[in-house]
Amino acid sequence: MIQSMTGYGKATAELPDKKINVEIKSLNSKAMDLSTRIAPAYREKEIEIRNEISKVLERGKVDFSLWIEKKEGADAIPVNKAILENYYLQLDSICNELGIPRPEPGDWLQVLLRMPDVMSKTEIQELSEEEWNTVHATVFEAVGHLVDFRKQEGAALEKKFREKIENIHSLLEKITPYEKERVEKVKERITDALEKTLSVDYDKNRLEQELIYYIEKLDVNEEKQRLGNHLKYFISTMESGNGQGKKLGFIAQEMGREINTLGSKSNHAEMQKIVVQMKDELEQIKEQVLNVM
């Protein structure tokens, strides 16, 4: 079953003091193009996260975000009481020594709270194995949701491809009745030109030989056979498993070559109309195959 490169996944996890949020989305790309935004607390695990995501998703332009939401009260910045007290004693001593009037009690607090290191964030704690296991599981829950999304999109693409391949196959069969008619028209047109327009005598046996040579150059049986084989190969490749996007693209290109040759050899208005219809169906396949992983 094929997968689309388009997908989206999100997951969250609750820890005692915070909420872990993971979001990942992907679009089509020729290779893996991964960009990450990871909360500083988990930055040490970035390489590990990148490697594991790349292994699972294989291809696509992928945006990954991991951020933290602090719970109420958990992000309050503590006051360093020891430093505050030390500043107070120093300032009080300076006021005594220099005879500087002391500020009002409320002003004291405003002065002290602006002193360096009085308001300081707690040091970043070492990431515990238990917390990392929770974060890791959340990351791959989000990746799993994205893969599920890709599979759903892939199923829709597969249905569309089967429909378009069947349409081209049906159009290919419609060409057959016009082939014999085309030969007769070519023969009739050349004979009329010789008899009516040029008014010359000609060797009918030689004319037959020349017609055979001319008609062989317009023969499309090989193109029809090759195109039929490409149609079957496209379906079998699609059914063979995931990661076939590039291969399907190459097959579509080969299909295009055969259809173009059919058009150049057709020399018949109805056949050319059928070729145009096949090109339209193939163009829709080529557009969508870019999204296949």
From TrEMBL:
The keyword Hydrolase applies. Its cofactor is a divalent metal cation. GO terms for molecular function: hydrolase activity; RNA endonuclease activity. Residues 178-292 form the Endoribonuclease YicC-like C-terminal domain. Residues 2-158 form the Endoribonuclease YicC-like N-terminal domain. Keywords: Endonuclease, Hydrolase, Nuclease. Pfam families: YicC-like_C, YicC-like_N. Belongs to the YicC/YloC family. NCBIfam families: YicC/YloC family endoribonuclease. This is YicC family protein. The lineage of its organism: Bacteria, Pseudomonadati, Bacteroidota, Bacteroidia, Bacteroidales.
